[in-house]
Every structure is written in structure tokens, then in C-alpha cells.
Amino acid sequence: MGRTGGHPGSHLGDGVTGRQGEQLVPVPRLVGWFAGFTRDVALHADELSALDGAIGDADHGTNLNRGCREALRTLHAEPPRTVGDFGRTVGMQLLAHVGGASGVLYGSFFLDFGASAPGAQGLTPRGFAAAWHAGVAAVVARGRAEVGDKTMLDVLAPVRDALDTAAWHTVDLGGMLKAALDAAEQGLEATVPLVARKGRASYIGPRSAGHQDPGARSSWLLVRAATTTLAG
Amino acid sequence: MKKLINSPETVVADSLRGLAIAHRELSVDVGKRVVVRGDAPVPGKVGILSGGGSGHEPLHVGYVGRGMLDAACPGEIFTSPSPQQILEATRRVDGGRGVLHIVKNYTGDVMNFEMAGDLARARGIEVRAVTVGDDVANDGLTTAGRRGVGATVLVEKICGAAAERRWPLARVADLGNRVIANARSMGIALTSCTVPSARRPTFTLGEDEMEVGIGMHGETGRFRHKLVPAREVAAILLDRVLADMPLEPGEQVLAFVNGMGATPLMELYIVLDEVARLLDARGLTLQRTLTGTYMAALDMAGCSLTVLRLDEEMTSLWDAPVATPALTWGTV
Predict the structure, then answer these.
(1) Quick check: is B60 catalytic?
(2) Is B225 a catalytic residue?
(3) CATH for the B8-181+319-329 domain, from 3.40.50.10440, 3.20.20.80, 2.40.50.140, 3.30.200.20
């Protein structure tokens, strides 16, 4: 899955050669983003598992924490040179070590995030939006979920749309990410009243309402980590 | 909650090392999380593979052996195995006739097996998958589909026997789907289970309550009910199972009363006795039974009931010899 045409990011070819003055997020900073996410997942692991316990099987924090640690270890042992390397390393490690639906979904997200600019040594703000687009498309393809099903997509998709919209108005990554975080927070809150239609939470039907979705919350952490690490 | 473990992080690996010592006839790769028949791959035989989260033992690792599974892929507790893990097991049991993946219908299991199937096919291994969804507690319309529960054990046994008879892959897969189409299950819990890493029960039940329609992961059920005697529990479960799969008087069934991990066999026999009486009252013939803890939800107390409508071929395959850690009969 490459990038999807027809949105702002697709104007920029490999996502690196941005217009004059555009910030470039180099690959090591993407690693920093993932390190920040890993740290936040570790800090919030119990909370993620507790949310999962309310509507699922109480292991989301544990699983994601284990997988992120493995992925970060590999990123440090074999530092990626390109966006593609970054996405492949993170994606394969998450696939192998998170397990469950989250492993496949986050793994697919990063594999296709990287594949959107495989040879690039960094991402422009619009390149980042395009990579996010590709990652979300992979999540949709594997999970076959829709917005409103009470899943991580309820955060990932609004963030995609916010990044796209922001990319029309600004080339300032900090500004784009702020819009993204706002969208993530709204999407996260919106999962609370929803009745789950996908994943293990769907088995308890109406009783899933009133609880925040743990996958949406970990996705919110991913966006929040981006705001604190990427804009530099 | 007390647990007899070293640490939550090492539960699966520590347990697999014990399995390897207890069952030297199996090939246990603790690092890759793959348990394989000692003589795999068996040339000319379809490989039968299943896998899923750990915590349901003996499912699936306890069913590796002649007449049942060629390989099992245990994931973390209640967490599906990874695509890489399933691919590794698939490669090790491909005897040239292809490999059947028996998948329980959970979002994570289905996705990981799909991805593994894609990877295996890209390497030239023929793979078919059957997805078990037998739990009548959910309708499958507003959810991620019916969960795979007790029928999984029956599918593994019957497909394993067919593969042993050298049936080709497509026919074994069709058989698996036939077993799935003719099996229904429902379960109740008297207590929740405790996931080792979470340290506390996933849900709480009062002394006078039971949870009806539970899954095998400590996910809560469809509704709470006051605790009633085994007789009424059997009726609640059987009524719902047969409402979903109406049977005509004279039909032959297998009844599988499964313990969820912490319920004594003695109590399971009490439930079986009630189930047998109720089946008899409906004019159904109880042809075969399976009673015991064959698919647990860690330390949950409770049981599930699975009814399989039998035909002659299924019965013959059920009776065929099997030699695994948890299920053994006949002369293999």
C-alpha cells in the first residue's frame, strides 16, 4: 500500500524535497518519536490494561509495552537510515512481539508508514501527513473497521484528516501536530459512549458503552508523543 | 490473587519448558514459541496447525501429537500468536500436502493467521484456514462475530483424524467447516479469572451471582443471573444452544462439558448428568461425551457446554486413535 493520491501530501514526491524553508524531520527524530511513545506506553501500561479490563481482557498495556520495548531495542541496535527502514523495523518488531489485534494493526501501520517514503532520509510536514495516511490505510485494510466502531481508528482517522487539512494551510509541523492532537483528543473522548462493534469489546454489546477504548487511548499516546518529539 | 509463577513476564516460556520435559515426544521451541510433533513434517499428510493465546491449556499445546495437531503456536496470555510464529510452525509441519490452520474467531487471531497465511503462500506452501465460531452467547451481527470456544477441541480432533487418514487439504477443510456448522456452545462463570500481569480478577461477581454467556478470556458475559443449581445451569445452557441449532428427535449428538479452569471434575460430571437427562427428554441420542477441563480461561470457575450434531463419518473420526498430552485413546 503506497500513499493515497489526492491529498496534500501527495504533491511532494518522496516526501523529503519540500519547498524552501520547510522543516525536515530526519529519521533519528522519528526514532525519538517512537522512544517517546515507548516511554509513555510504559508509564501508562497499567492504565491501558485497566481500560482493557473494563471491556476486554486486560492486557493491552502489557502487550504494547513489551512490543514497543523490543522495537526500540532494535532501533537502537540497528539504527535505521531511511524512513522505510524505520517503519520496517518498528512494524516487524510490533508484529512479532505485541501479539493480538494490536500487534497486527500497529505493525501494519508502521510498515506502511515507512513504505510511503522508503528511501527518504526524513519527512517534511506534508510527507509526515502522507505517511500517516498510508499507515491508517493499512489499519483499515487489515482491521476492516470503520470510524465509530470504538477502536484505535477513532483516533487514527481523525488525526489523518486533521493532518491533511492542516497541511493545506501551513508547513509548520508544530502547528499541524497541534491540530492532530486536538483531533486525537476529540476522537478519544468520542469512544466513551460508543458501543463496540469490532474487537473483543464487541462481545459484551451495550455494556461496552461508558468506557474509553484502550486502543484509541494508546493511539492518542502515539499522537501526543509526536507533538513533544517531532517538531523540535 | 495468588499464582504459582515466577514472574508474569515469563509465564509462557517457563510453562513451555515444563511441557518439553513432561512430553519429550514433542519438539518444543521455547524461543520461537512453536510446539511440533516429534516426527513432523509427516510426508504425504496434511499438516494440522492451531494456535492462540496461552491460558487455555491444554488447548492448544496439549493436543499436539498423532491423530490431532501437528503444531501449536502459543501466544502470550490471551493474546494471539504472531504472523512470524505461525509461519514458522507452518513451515515445520508442511509435509507437501499443505497445511490447515484452525483459527478461533477473535479479531487478533484472525488477523495474525491471515497475515501468516499470506506469508506462507508467498513461500509456496498451500494453506487453508477454517474459523471456529460456535458461541451462541453472541449473535455475530453486532459483534466481531461468534467467538470460537469449545468446538475448537472437536474440530482439532476430527480434522486431525482425517489428516491421519491422508485426506487431502480441501477435504479436511470442508470437514472442519462441517463440524463448525454443526456445533454450538455456551458458558457460564462462577468467578472471574486473574491474568497474571493484571494481578486482580478481570471482573467481580457476588457470592450469589453467576455470569452467563462468558467467553474464555475473562471477558464478561451477556448478563448476570442469580446463582442456581447445576440442574438449572444445564438447562440455561442447553436451551440456548438448541434454540440456535434445533435438532430433531432421534438425532445423535456429542456433548462436551468443559471446565473453565477452576471447577472440579466432580461438578462437571453433575452438569453432564443433567445435560444427559435433558437431551433424553428431547429424544436426542447422546452418542459420545467429553468431560473435563479441555479449554480453560486460566483460573476461572464455571463451565461451557458444546453440542455437536454427529453423523457416522464424524463419529468414526472422533473414535479414531489419538495420542497427545491431553487427549489419548485407541492404539495409534
Answers:
(1) no
(2) no
(3) 3.40.50.10440
Mean pLDDT, residues A119-135: 96
Residue of A nearest to B75 (CA): A99
Q: Give A26→chain B minimum CA distance, Å.
A: 30
Could you report the per-residue pLDDT of B138-149, keeping only the tens digit for each? 776 667 789 999
pLDDT in tens, B74-89: 999 998 999 999 999 9
Q: Place domain B183-309 in its CATH homologous superfamily.
A: Dihydroxyacetone kinase; domain 2 (3.30.1180.20)
Q: Comparing C-alpha atoms, which of B32, B71, B22, B37 is closest to residue B51?
A: B71
Residues 6+ apart with CB under 8 A from A5: none
Is the confidence at residue A12, as pLDDT, over 50?
Answer: no
CA distances from B229 to B205, B225, B226, B258, B271 (A): 17, 12, 10, 17, 10
CATH for A24-229, options being 3.40.50.1460, 1.10.3470.10, 3.40.50.620, 1.25.40.340 = 1.25.40.340
Quick: pLDDT tens for B239-253.
Answer: 999 999 999 999 999
CA within 13 Å, CB half, B246: 1
- Closest approach of chain B CAs to the CA of A61, in angstroms? 10
